[in-house]
Automatic annotation (TrEMBL), chain A:
It holds the Pfam family FIBP. The gene is FIBP. One of its GO terms (biological process) is platelet aggregation. It comes from the Eukaryota. GO terms for molecular function: fibroblast growth factor binding. PANTHER family: ACIDIC FIBROBLAST GROWTH FACTOR INTRACELLULAR BINDING PROTEIN (PTHR13223), ACIDIC FIBROBLAST GROWTH FACTOR INTRACELLULAR-BINDING PROTEIN (PTHR13223:SF2). It comes from Ailuropoda melanoleuca (Giant panda). InterPro entries: FIBP. This is FGF1 intracellular binding protein. GO terms for cellular component: nucleus.
Length: 345, 1034
């Protein structure tokens, strides 16, 4: 006796969160069944393995059918085939677009192309995330990227509107899109200590301050591309290190302000020139695409590492950077914003 | 020109990409009604076209309005080649034709293609202007309302229940016409869909005409079925109950209950009829003439050649030997005469209803059923469907005579079905013989009932259990006792019915789903030989199904079955029988005896031991079940009344029911003592298997209940969460081990596993009950068994239920004990009477001889046949008590305000096979939904194999039903049923096809929490349905 066909269709589509998770994690039906058995569900419910198998298959089939709709979440809301309560719809979408930290760190800043997709096997082996799940996450990134890439308006809003994600998740996706678009290098060994959250934080600030959208909210690509003019302007910062007087003045301003407030004051004072040179050089190079990609590597090399070797506490770094950029305003010839970014160490 | 149909095509969305080059579609729409077609403009390059068309107007006869569906076809414009069809929408405009239903159909409909499934949606608005037409010869029956619901719809009152209406129309099946060889599958499917849609329209119109003739205004319990006879054609047939309904202005006007007739019963004289031979004479004769005939031609001639029943014209009295009831003597004559006058004018006093206004049902006799095997031949003249008509007429006659034999003049809970395999067709009909209160059947006034009711306060809740037949002239052997409730009338020891549990019935404990499952191998044969083989097998199957039901019922410690539905399915090389029913313990009937096992083999130590071990297991199971289903009948009273011949041994045992004391005794003395015990004889492995299989049925996990009736006896505090579902399973049998046992086991496992899966899937709803569990079996191919289940899971509040039940039991207990004493002598007398009246001692124990199975010696056959028949019709008896603890059951239900749930979001359309929605009030019926879909694929693997294909299709069917309901302004479908799900596959060719037919009533409901909760009495019946309705779709 073999089961040829075995289906269950509810007027309200049944969604089992646990099975959904297993499906998203890319487990095959048999693996999922094995995992469910291990979870003790058979004992709790008195079901048999065959029942579990049938149930799992059924859910997988449903998810498979839903997947097409999940690719364009607004469709899920308007479709008539599956009757799903709104709260469940939200859950389906949110979970579908959720990603693994380990995975996102691997692809963050990479071009979302076929080439990268081919490397997913390696990523899968490296991270222990199933290839299937890697593909889903990668395709999600790519899909979101494609949709919002050339859209005008706020990146986060666009993502939210087209994919109905929660605010938090939409922000994360904005970061992913931003990084992918600018191809920031994040995979270097030196950067391994940074989490996705760290990068997302940077991305948010950069979107706010460095993009076209920061200047004009009515242009295409406003939140994804860096403002070229701004980058050009950054060149002028060279003065800060090229002009000796200015450098000294800057240093004394910062030192005066921070005296007594910094645990690592002496180290700062001793290193100021190096640090300032490092920062300014990084900024000034940003007109070249290559250097934009290496932004984070450079920052870590030129600024974070020296700080770390002197054991700067985080609070001191923050104070220093704030003061560093604030003081510039009181120098002749400087107005307006400047970089205010420093990856937290 | 009595009608103007207006259609407007507003917009489309989510259309498929039809032009690969641009990834877009140039869509336009054709709107067709009858022979007229309109087109919209082409909306270029969009997947979300906004046509916003003008109003397309069709001026048509109302006859066409009823028959024809509105066809909307969405196409992709192509300059150079033929336009490609995207898909179609069929809209049945019937709901717009009666005044109280929907006034406009407006909403998003899925665009459906038989090859690709749903492809986007289209927004359509449809209206109808009807002109009054006083033409008395008209062919249309606009205005007659149709309901699938098998009870009086909630916001109506039955003024008169006229009775049975039936009709059938036949046609050639487009799939089998020559043209099918040259057209595409799509064209062929569409031709079929359209034809069936047309035929259902026509059928409904014709039935409507009959209703008008009877001066009714509605059909309740409308059941329409398709018989796909293959080569020989396509039959669409329908039955229903014609009624005159009144819209309720306020629920206070609910029908008063009138159970008048039970009074007369008191006067029953103990008739000293000298001829107590219950077996062979008198009323039992009609039982015998049951025909398992197959007749390719019309062996039965009727006066009228059309399928008209001409209810009002043919006062067919006394067919055959006259009514059995009359033979029985003066007994209950008064009552009978009253009703007979009303009913005998009708050719078929049948009612498709399964629940009735209070007082309508007076007595229930038992299940009556008839089957006949026919050979299909080509229908030569579709306009004169005589053969099919004659076939059904024959079966109905038989049912009628069975009912008479049970002393009943009517059949309720009536239904008909067919099973077709190649050119053999089994026609089946079944129902419950009953005595009805005539007052509802004629133009009498309902007010009369009211008064009557005041005079009599006989205990309700047991009247229907009282036997309608003459106890001295019983049509079958049965054991009678005095009613445990009123102590005045006789009741049988078990009661089988096809109806729902009457609201006022007193039930003890909870009910449960009971199924009998059976397979029988059959040689492959052609034509007549095949039909003969089937005919020969049928009685055995029926007999065995009933034995199984009886055994399982006893095993559950219950004494009545409701909602009994026996399905016999024929396949190439086997027959399958599946009976489902809801078992309950009726307080009015005696406690069921235990099951006693007896071995036939001469003394053999280990064998004896084995037997007693088994006996113990059975007794344990019964005890466990009693606990599980909370069956604690009042013990004391029962002892006194239940065992009129007190046995010392029994008295000494305190617990449980006396009948279980049997575990000590294994002797085979059936004629004395142990009168209640049900004896199973085991003399070979077959019988052993059977006993084993009895014990393998696993009860549902805790927190779950299941039943196949509308509601679960014993649970009355439903909460509002419902989940309707359909589950389909197909298994392939390995051809190696095809023995009856292996088959039975496979089939049994299939059903049990399916149930287990359901329990598992719905575990998040616990505590909950699966209601209206409806199993359908089909044998699509040689080694395939397909089981389809549709049911609804409803949550309930565990805490509230118990109390009500308890108080009630106590009450009835008290009443019982006070009455005991006076009655004591009667039972004694009765008992000795009935003792002597039984010609065969074993009959008394209703024993079923397991050893006597089938193919062994032919001499058994006659006896078995006889038994099978008797059991089938008759041995029906037990029923239950309680549940509706207080007469306020309904009230309680209402008061339980459901917490305002956030789920009442826009767009949700509930579906349920029940006639009501828990925690809500139906404010309006919008019309019948009756839809037929075909889906075909030539890329089965790509669509996820058979499971993926069917899963998607069923989901699409649900979606289309919901969309239609929403477009009518409704938010639920009640009495939903999937009448057909025919699935065929050809994996080698990567192809599959499936036909699904569903129906139900579109309604508007309002959550009770949204009504003023204060007075359940005044829920402003005309409360605006719009509150939830209209805006539904988005």
């Amino acid at each position: 006796m073999t089961s040829e066909l075995d289906i269950f269709v509810g007027n309200t589509t049944l969604i089992d969160e646990d099975v959904y998770r297993l499906w998203l994690d890319g487990y095959s039906v048999s693996d999922a069944v094995a995992l469910r058995v291990r979870s003790g569900i058979l004992e709790q419910t008195g079901a048999t393995a065959a029942v579990l198998q049938s149930d799992t298959m059924d859910h997988y089939r449903t998810f498979h059918m839903l997947e097409r709709l999940l690719h364009a979440p607004p469709k899920l809301l308007h479709q008539l085939i599956f009757q799903i309560p709104p709260s469940r719809q939200a859950l389906l979408i949110e979970r579908y677009y959720a990603f693994d930290e380990a995975f996102v760190r691997e692809v963050l800043g990479k071009k979302l192309s076929k080439g990268t997709k081919k490397d997913l096997d390696d990523i899968s082996t490296k991270t222990g995330i199933t290839l299937k799940s890697c593909r889903r996450q990668f395709d999600n990134f790519k899909r979101v990227f494609k949709v919002v890439e050339e859209m005008r308006g706020s990146l986060v809003d666009n993502i939210q509107q087209h994919f109905l994600l929660s605010d938090r998740l939409a922000r994360d996706y904005a970061a992913i899109v931003f990084f992918a678009n600018n191809r920031f290098e994040t995979g270097k060994k030196k950067l391994q200590y940074l989490s996705f959250g760290d990068f997302a934080y940077c991305a948010e600030l950069m979107i706010q301050n460095w993009t076209l959208g920061a200047v004009d909210s009515q242009v295409d690509d406003m939140d994804v591309d860096l403002d070229k003019e701004f980058l050009q302007d950054l060149k002028e910062l060279k003065m800060l290190v090229a002009d000796k007087d200015l450098l000294d003045l800057h240093k004394s301003l910062v030192c005066t302000a921070l005296r007594g407030k910094l645990g690592v004051f002496s180290e700062m004072e001793a290193n100021f020139k190096n640090l300032s040179r490092g920062l300014v050089n990084v900024a000034a190079k940003l007109t070249h695409n290559k250097d934009v990609r290496d932004l984070f590597v450079d920052l870590v090399e030129k600024f974070v590492e020296p700080c770390r070797s002197d054991h700067w506490p985080l609070s001191d770094v923050r104070l220093f950077l704030n003061q560093y950029s604030a003081s510039v305003h009181s120098l002749d010839g400087f107005r307006g914003g400047s970089l205010s970014v420093g990856p937290p160490s | 020109m009595p009608g103007k149909l207006k259609v407007k095509i507003v917009a489309g969305r989510h259309l498929p990409v039809m032009d690969r080059a641009s990834d877009l579609t140039d869509a336009f729409v054709e709107v067709k009604f009858g022979n007229t077609t309109f087109k919209t403009d082409v909306y270029l390059k969009s997947l979300n076209p906004q046509w916003n068309s003008e109003w397309f107007k069709f001026e048509v006869d109302d006859e066409d309005l009823q028959d024809e569906p509105l066809q909307i076809t969405v196409l992709d414009h192509d300059t150079y080649s033929a336009n490609d069809a995207i898909g179609k929408v069929y809209i049945d405009i019937d709901p717009l034709l009666y005044s109280e239903a929907a006034t406009v159909i407006s909403g998003w409909f899925p665009i459906y293609d038989t090859i690709h499934g749903i492809r986007g949606e289209i927004n359509v608005v449809v209206k109808v202007d009807l002109f009054n037409d006083l033409n008395r010869f008209r062919q249309s029956s606009c205005g007659v309302k149709f309901f699938c619901t098998t009870s009086i719809p909630k916001c109506y009152r039955a003024v008169i229940i006229h009775g049975f209406v039936e009709e059938l129309v036949v046609n050639e099946d487009p799939e089998y016409q020559w043209i099918d060889r040259i057209r595409t599958p799509r064209a062929s499917n569409e031709a079929r869909q359209r034809l069936i849609s047309l035929m259902s329209g026509e059928l409904q119109r014709k039935i409507g005409l009959k209703v008008l003739e009877m001066r009714g205004n509605a059909v309740v319990g409308y059941l329409q079925c398709f018989d796909l006879e293959g080569e020989s054609g396509l039959v669409v047939r329908a039955i229903g109950t014609a009624c005159t309904l009144d819209k309720l202005s306020s629920p206070a006007a609910l029908l008063p209950a009138c159970n008048s007739p039970s009074k007369e019963m008191k006067e029953i004289p103990f008739n000293e009829d000298p001829n107590p031979n219950t077996h062979s004479s008198g009323p039992s004769t009609p039982l015998k003439n049951q025909t398992y005939s197959f007749s390719p031609s019309k062996s039965y001639s009727r006066q009228s050649s059309s399928s008209d029943t001409d209810l009002s014209l043919t006062p067919k009295t006394g067919m055959g030997s006259g009514s059995a009831g009359k033979e029985g003597g003066p007994f209950k004559a008064l009552l009978r005469q009253q009703t007979q006058s009303a009913l005998e004018q009708r050719e078929f006093p049948f009612f498709t209803l399964t629940a009735f206004p209070p007082g309508f049902l007076v007595h229930v006799g038992g299940v009556v059923s008839a089957r006949s095997v026919k050979l299909l031949d080509r229908i030569h003249n579709p306009d004169e469907p005589e053969t099919r008509d004659a076939w059904w007429a024959e079966i109905r006659q038989e049912i009628k005579s069975h009912a008479k034999a049970l002393g009943c003049h009517a059949v309720v809970g009536y239904s008909e079905s067919t099973s077709i395999c190649e050119e053999v067709c089994i026609l089946s009909a079944s129902g419950t013989a009953a005595v009805l209160n005539p007052r509802f059947l004629q133009d009498g006034t309902v007010e009369g009932c009211l008064e009557q009711r005041l005079e009599e306060n006989l205990p309700a809740g047991c009247g229907f259990c009282h036997i309608p037949y003459d106890e001295l002239n019983m049509p079958f052997p049965a054991h009678l006792t005095y009613c445990y409730n009123c102590r005045k009338q006789k009741v049988p020891d078990v009661l089988f019915t096809t109806i729902d549990l009457p609201i006022d019935a007193t039930v003890i404990g909870k009910g449960c789903l009971i199924q009998a499952r059976l397979c029988r191998l059959k040689k492959k044969a052609q034509a007549e030989a095949n039909a003969t083989a089937i005919s020969n097998l049928l009685p055995f199957m029926e007999y065995e199904v009933h034995t199984q039901l009886m055994n399982k019922l006893k095993l559950k410690g219950m004494n009545a079955l409701f909602g009994l539905r026996i399905q016999i399915t024929v396949g190439e090389n086997m027959l399958m029988g599946l009976a489902s029913a809801t078992g309950v313990y009726l307080a009015a009937l005696p406690t069921p005896g235990g099951i006693q096992i007896a071995g036939k083999t001469p003394n053999d130590g280990s064998y004896e031991q084995h037997i007693s071990h088994m006996q113990k297991k059975i007794n344990d199971t019964i005890a466990k079940n009693k606990e599980l289903y909370e069956i604690n009948p009042p013990d004391t009273s029962e002892e006194i009344i239940g065992s009129p011949i007190p046995e010392p041994r029994q008295r000494s045992r305190l617990l449980r029911s006396q009948s279980e004391s049997s575990d000590e005794v294994t002797e085979l003395d059936l004629s004395h003592g142990k009168k209640d015990a049900f004896v199973l004889e085991i003399d070979d492995t077959d019988a052993m298997e059977d006993v084993h299989s009895l014990l393998t049925d696993v009860p549902p996990p805790s927190g779950f209940y299941s039943c196949n009736t509308e509601i679960m006896p014993g649970i009355n505090n439903w909460t509002s969460e419902i989940q309707m579902f359909t589950s389909v399973r197909v298994i392939r049998l390995s051809s190696l081990n095809l023995t009856n046992q292996a088959l039975n086991k496979n089939f049994n496992d299939l059903c049990e596993n399916l149930l287990k899966s359901l329990y598992f899937k719905l575990r998040s709803m616990i505590p909950c009950c699966l209601c209206h569990v409806n199993f359908t079996v089909s044998l699509p191919e040689d080694e395939l068994i397909q089981v389809t289940v549709t049911a609804v899971a409803i949550t309930f509040d565990k805490n509230q239920a118990l109390q009500t039940t308890k108080t009630h039991v106590e009450k009835s207990l008290q009443r019982a004990s006070t009455d005991n004493e006076e009655l004591l002598q009667f039972p004694l007398e009765l008992c000795s009477d009935s003792l002597s009246s039984h010609p065969f001692p074993p009959a008394k124990a209703t024993s079923v001889d397991y050893s006597s199975f089938a193919d062994r010696c032919s001499s058994w056959i006659e006896l078995i046949k006889l038994k099978a028949q008797t059991i089938r019709r008759g041995s029906i008896k037990t029923t239950v008590t309680v549940e509706k603890a207080s007469p306020m059951g309904e009230g309680n239900f209402r008061n339980r305000a459901t917490p305002p749930c956030a789920s009442s979001t826009v767009g949700v359309v509930k579906m349920t096979p029940l006639s009501f929605i828990p925690g809500a009030k139906i404010t309006k019926y919008l019309g019948i939904i009756n839809m037929f879909f075909i889906r075909e694929t030539t890329s089965l693997r790509e669509e996820g194999g058979v499971s993926g294909f069917l899963h998607a299709f069923i989901a699409e069917v649900f979606a289309m039903v919901r969309a239609h309901v929403a477009a009518l302004g409704g938010n639920a479908v009640v009495s939903y049923i999937m009448k057909q799900c025919v699935f065929m596959e050809n994996p080698n060719k990567n192809q599959a096809q499936c036909l699904i037919n569903v129906s139900g009533d579109a309604v508007v409901f309002v959550r009770e929490s949204e009504l003023e909760v204060v007075s359940t009495q005044q829920p402003t019946a005309n409360c605006q349905p719009s509150c939830t309705g209209g805006e539904v779709t988005t």
